[in-house]
Amino acid sequence: MAAPKKGRRPAGGQSRPGRALALILIAMVALTGAMFWSGHTTPRLGIDLAGGTSITLKAKAEPGKEDAVNETNMNTAVGIIDRRVNGLGVSEAEVQTQGRENIIVNIPRGVDEKQAREQVGTTAQLHFRPVLAWAPSGPATPTPSGSPTPSASTKPSAGSSASPSASATDGKASPSASATTQGRAVSEALKKAPTPSASGTPSPGASKSPDASKSPGTTPPADDAAKLQQQFAALDCTPKAPKSGDKKVVPNPAQGVPAEQPTLACGTEGDAKYLLGPAEVDGRDVDDAKGVFDQQRGMWIVNMEFTDAGAKKFSQITGKLSQQQEPQNQFAIVLDGSVVSAPSVRTTLSANAEISGSFNQQSAQDLGNILSYGALPLSFDTQSVDTVTAALGGEQLEAGLIAGAIGLALVVLYLIVYYRGLSLIALLSLGVSALLTYVIMSLLGPAIGFALNLPAVCGAIVAIGITADSFIVYFERIRDEVREGRTLRPAVERAWPRARRTILVSDFVSFLAAAVLFVVTVGKVQGFAFTLGLTTLLDVVVVFLFTKPLMTLLARTKFYGEGHPWSGLDPKRLGAKPPLRRSRRVSAPVDSPKEA
């Protein structure tokens, strides 16, 4: 008979179960250490459990577009605001409409309220407008040079030699030539802009003469350019407080001006003022934007990538601007009416651009986030900002925890009565699963903005049943093998392949249901789906790396291996069949040769 080869082990057997136990122990220690190192030792709570801030926004339409406040635009705005403040959709910020023109945004405590309010209230209307004139802030004569104050750049296409920053001249041009050039530029811009009767909205400083309104498509009166320049000369962009004691704000004369009209505008810091032509490119032409750190210049910038159509328009406008003299070779990047930057253009640019300035990491990433998700179809005024208490949620949480404790106690009682010694393995596995769930939820708060709300607590309670079900499946498979007459050690290994298949199929169905629920729902229901999916994945990890290896080790002990009555694996109590044995035929003794 051939001797068995060394190293061969029975199918389904597990060598060195201590490795799996050591692996999950290392993971638990590492995650727990990361939790304490991060300083977030408790899960972040949602607004229904911890309270927070409720912001009421009221929609307002641009002049001449009063019908823009409709259900479609309101729903679009809700979706954009929700993506801005929720990130992955699990930070539990609630965004919903109220009535015809109000949006309610509930932000849980723990979220940076100032940052969230900026994300909520910023309309993010982005336009690229040609610069007709610029000057330092305050009533003064326009200066015919590039702006030294705003800091911005554009990325040229391959082989381009465009200057990466706003340029400034020496200021030697004569004032009379400067005024003539500006007047001609403003007149040309007004010729391109629709007349009041055609657009329905007059341009800033446009004449309201009846002749202009009666002849759509014709050139506006010549004095419109002069009036616009007069308004520009008188404009003061110095920050002012609306009321005594209020925070100073920069005037925003471009707010609400249609994109096809020339406009006056101020820099974001209020230190420069601009006379801008009609918008040539807008935020809808931006395909993606993100805040990145420029290693060469040591500063944070916002990179923008245009769509195919946007890149074509951007190339056309920069091609035209590159042929102009300063300041008409500049284009202003205007966000919600304020000039973020106004770089000069010396050659045709293509698909990419960047915004630079006094950004830090947070402000650059916030602006990239806003531009990526798109502009709101409407402008909003903040009607109220209220603090929400967690009194009602706290009572509901207490009731939910009591119900969960009762359910857990019943599960533990059932395991002890029915499985006896095996209940120790189940309880240890439940403890490991609970620890991993708590630690991971605590880490996900600062990492992705996950907030634990009441539905999420319900998902965690439901997961207790899913985890206990996996143990029961495995224990019953082992008992079936013992009933067939096998001893415990081979029974544990033979039962595992069949139990493993059942556990994986069951957990896959649960995870699939959680994933579908997360995708097709919004708000708090996503918290339930996320928690259910997370605990389902942890159930697989715990069963494979803790429950099975621990069962393998305990099967080698005398208490479990010999089927102690309190082990839960007593062959007599399980009605085990005696092992099958072959019997020999016994011949009768031979008394005589004749009988033989």
Strand order of the largest sheet: 4-6-5-11-10
- The secondary-structure element order is HHEHEEHEHHHHEEEEEHEEEHEHHHHHHH
| Structural class based on helices, strands and sheet pairing | alpha+beta
Largest sheet: 5 strands, mixed, barrel
Query: Number of DSSP strands?
Result: 13
- The coarse overall form would be elongated
Strand content: 5-15%
Mean pLDDT across all amino acids: 74
Q: Low-confidence spans: pLDDT under 50, at least 5 residues? A: 4-13, 141-180, 193-220
CA(first)-CA(last) distance: 36 Å
Proportion in helices: 40-55%
Number of helices: 17
Which secondary structure elements does this structure contain, and how are they paired or packed?
Layout: H1 17-38, H2 47-50, E1 52-60, H3 71-86, E2 94-98, E3 102-108, H4 113-121, E4 126-136, H5 175-192, H6 196-199, H7 210-214, H8 223-234, E5 263-267, E6 272-276, E7 281-282, E8 286-294, E9 299-306, H9 308-321, E10 331-335, E11 338-341, E12 352-356, H10 361-373, E13 379-388, H11 391-419, H12 422-448, H13 454-483, H14 488-520, H15 524-554, H16 558-561, H17 571-574
Parallel strand pairs: 5-11
Antiparallel strand pairs: 1-3, 1-13, 2-3, 4-6, 4-7, 4-10, 5-6, 8-9, 9-12, 10-11
Protein described:
This protein has about 600 residues and is an alpha+beta fold. About 45% of the residues lie in helices and about 15% in strands. The strands form 3 sheets. A 5-stranded mixed barrel has the order 4-6-5-11-10. A 4-stranded antiparallel sheet has the order 2-3-1-13. Strands 8-9-12 form a 3-stranded antiparallel sheet. Strand 5 (about 265) and strand 6 form a beta hairpin. Helix 13 runs antiparallel to helix 14 (about 490-520). It is elongated.
